[in-house]
Amino acid sequence: MGTFFFRNRPELELLIRLLNIKAEASALDLTILGCSKGAEVYSFAYTIRSARPDLKVRLRALDIDPDVLKVAEEGLYSLKSRAPGQTFSSGSVIPGEDLATKTFGDQTSSVFERMSPEEIEAMFECKDEQATVKPPFRDGITWHLGDAGDTKLVNLFGLQDIVVANRFLCHMQPQQAETCLRNLANLVKPGGYLFVSGIDLEVRTKIARELGWVPVTELIKEIHEGDPSLRQDWPLEYWGLGPFDRCRNDWDIRYASVFQVGVALSANAHPKIAGERSEEMFVHGDH
Ligand SMILES: C[S@@+](CC[C@H](N)C(=O)[O-])C[C@H]1O[C@@H](n2cnc3c(N)ncnc32)[C@H](O)[C@@H]1O
């Protein structure tokens, strides 16, 4: 399954639309859980910085694996397009190995394969097949070693405008994934958004219903199909995603990868993109 820069483009497009709804917001608290080698974190940071250079972004990134977290924090990657002969079944990278080995970790394809050369140039300083994330896309990021299921996270991070929990809950047994998802949803401010994909759809639907999350249906099909590796791996791998089926009665809650949290009973719940969001969403004025 691995990780990639610009992994799901429609997801990033939705992020921009959500940010643009409240053009007057001056700050954003964003947490990305299961951040792996940082590709997702820097993709979000780049997207936000490009779309809303005015926004003060406090981005917290967390992973349970200290080795991948170190790679993420360094923000230095190999531009080689092929993995070294060696791969690791444990899923962890080995500290001290050369940059290509650290960059590829347990995946065989490049983290850059979904980026154009122009995007790589815009986001990285490149030299001798090495790419370092440029300072504007690293500023404001703090890196944390921890478990997304830790009930103390909300005390540590505070409530967030947006929480991202992509592609790690699928590796848990359903009961464990449910508990973790319920817990990490507590991090989201009332009216804020939870991005959650790469999870068993039955688990996500069950918790979304129980907790009254509002599915964001804007770009729902595009986002569901927006990560080729997940769609292509269905039905052979347990993390594979089946086709989008709009004939189902529950299509909106089943296929949504983004939810507005804590507004189900409020007049502020939006019908489509959460356009009429709770006024709690985002910060007005610096703090
Ligand atoms: C397949 S990668 C996904 C990376 C990234 N979210 C993406 O979508 O490209 C899964 C990552 O989740 C991390 N992870 C697994 N369980 C976790 C947990 N309970 N808390 C935090 N991170 C976790 C793993 O260490 C790994 O780096």
Walk me through what this model shows:
The chain is of the alpha/beta class and 287 residues long. It has a domain at 9-73 and 141-260: Vaccinia Virus protein VP39 (Rossmann fold, 3-Layer(aba) Sandwich), CATH 3.40.50. Helix content is 31%, strand content 17%. The model is unreliable at 273-280 (pLDDT under 50). The structure holds S-adenosylmethionine. The site of S-adenosylmethionine (SAM) has 19 residues, from helix 2 and strand 2. S-adenosylmethionine binds at residues 1, 3, 7, 33-34, 36, 39-40, 62-65, 68, 147-149, 166-168.
Give unreliable regions as ranges.
Answer: 273-280
Helix- and strand-based class?
alpha/beta
- Total DSSP helices: 11
User: Bound compounds, please?
Assistant: S-adenosylmethionine
**Strand line-up of the largest beta sheet:** 6-2-1-7-8-10-9
Would you count the extended β strands for me?
Answer: 10
How many strands, what sense, and barrel or not for the largest sheet? 7 strands, mixed
CATH superfamily placement of one domain: Vaccinia Virus protein VP39
Approximate strand percentage: 15-25%
Helix content: 25-40%
Radius of gyration over all CA atoms, rounded: 18 Å
- The CATH topology annotation of one domain reads as Rossmann fold
Mean pLDDT: 89
